């Protein structure tokens, strides 16, 4: 029953209480047995960015399913509504050959996330380059006609749902690309504070009461929330900035607040911090950046957010690793460990 399914899923998905009943029913059918099998193998259910290894597994699963069923392309398989004449046949083949199980094979994530990732990977409309002036005008016209029905608009424009939604968010109002004014920064702070308070009230009412009794800004210290903030809502509240600008500015504010003036990357402290960063990344044996526990790593360098350490790593690889764009994540780490680390230790 529904309550039992929710309780069982809670072991694997901590935020399951916020998931709708209809989604719980689907997850109970598609995911619960898979999650239990992964648990037996000692594999935890994952969220967040997909790794290169997982992307390859999705590609393999899709190709094998196409070969098994004879469906001509991944686009037909994943965007069946674009081929109305073949729709019934494709749906029948997907049911007969257990599409849900096959597409998620070997990937410890909820089926829905795997399906969305596959659609993003195989949608030819995702990779069409910059929008022309004509396309931008069309987008504004279609949005006025159809509202935020991005699926409908994406079909009219032959662009992906995500692409048209993001582009409209970018062009719907005049965006300022200069330095942030004090007024804009204050609007951003107020917007973030408002959504954080709402989030805190939902998650932990007692935290909100202590928050309101304090004269300080303890809400800033909940830096883990910055990743889940509703940036399009914050963009609307700020009014003069695109959502990505708001997110970047917030990360900058967050870093300044949490760093509290510590100059971690200057002088001998800077050399030691780089040495520690390279050693810790090497010890993780990660094949992809998404496999690194950046929160844990950032705690080792002081009270700084993960974005701060990620930015320092980016600068380190750009300045130290030749042709880094052609190297895999693990190759970059190996180069830093074998070539750059001895130089830094000698300099220190």
TrEMBL record:
Name used for this protein in its record: TTF1 factor
SUPFAM superfamilies: Homeodomain-like (SSF46689)
Domain of life: Eukaryota
Gene transcribed to yield this protein: Ttf1
Myb-like domain: residues covered: 123-171, 172-254
UniProt GO MF annotations: chromatin binding
Gene Ontology cellular component list: nucleolus
Domain HTH myb-type: 123-160
Entries under InterPro entries matching the protein: Homeodomain-like_sf, Myb_dom, SANT/Myb, TTF1-like
UniProt cross-references to Pfam families, sorted A to Z: Myb_DNA-bind_6
GO biological process terms held by the UniProt record: termination of RNA polymerase I transcription
PROSITE patterns: HTH_MYB (PS51294), MYB_LIKE (PS50090)
Top-level taxonomy: Eukaryota, Metazoa, Chordata, Craniata, Vertebrata
């Amino acid at each position: 029953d529904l309550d039992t399914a929710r309780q069982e899923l809670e072991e694997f998905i901590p935020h399951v209480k916020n998931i709708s009943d209809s989604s719980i029913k689907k997850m109970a059918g598609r995911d619960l047995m898979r999650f239990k099998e992964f648990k037996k193998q000692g594999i935890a259910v994952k969220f967040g960015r997909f790794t290169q290894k997982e992307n390859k597994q999705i590609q393999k699963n899709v190709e094998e399913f196409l070969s098994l069923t004879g469906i001509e392309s991944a686009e037909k398989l994943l965007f069946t509504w674009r081929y109305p004449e073949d729709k019934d046949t494709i749906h029948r083949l997907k049911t007969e050959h257990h599409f849900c199980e096959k597409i998620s094979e070997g990937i410890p994530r909820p089926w829905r996330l795997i399906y969305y990732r596959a659609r993003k990977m195989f949608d030819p409309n995702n990779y069409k380059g910059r929008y022309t002036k004509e396309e931008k005008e069309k987008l504004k016209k279609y949005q006025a006609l159809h509202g935020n029905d991005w699926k409908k608009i994406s079909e009219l424009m032959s662009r992906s749902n995500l692409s048209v939604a993001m582009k409209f968010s970018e062009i719907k109002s005049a965006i300022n690309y200069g330095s942030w004014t004090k007024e804009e920064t204050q609007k951003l702070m107020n917007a973030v504070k408002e959504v954080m308070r709402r989030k805190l009230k939902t998650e932990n009412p007692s935290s909100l009461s202590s928050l309101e009794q304090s004269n300080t800004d303890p809400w800033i210290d909940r830096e883990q929330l910055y990743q889940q903030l509703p940036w399009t809502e914050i963009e609307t509240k700020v009014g003069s900035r695109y959502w990505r600008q708001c997110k970047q500015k917030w990360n900058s504010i967050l870093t300044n607040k949490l760093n509290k003036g510590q100059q971690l990357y200057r002088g001998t402290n800077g050399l030691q911090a780089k040495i520690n960063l390279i050693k810790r990344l090497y010890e993780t044996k990660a094949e992809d950046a998404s496999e690194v526990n950046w929160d844990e790593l950032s705690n080792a360098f002081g009270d700084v957010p993960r974005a701060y350490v990620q930015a320092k790593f980016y600068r380190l690889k750009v300045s130290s690793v030749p042709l880094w764009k052609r190297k895999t994540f693990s190759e970059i780490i190996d180069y830093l460990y074998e070539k750059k680390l001895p130089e830094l230790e000698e300099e220190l």
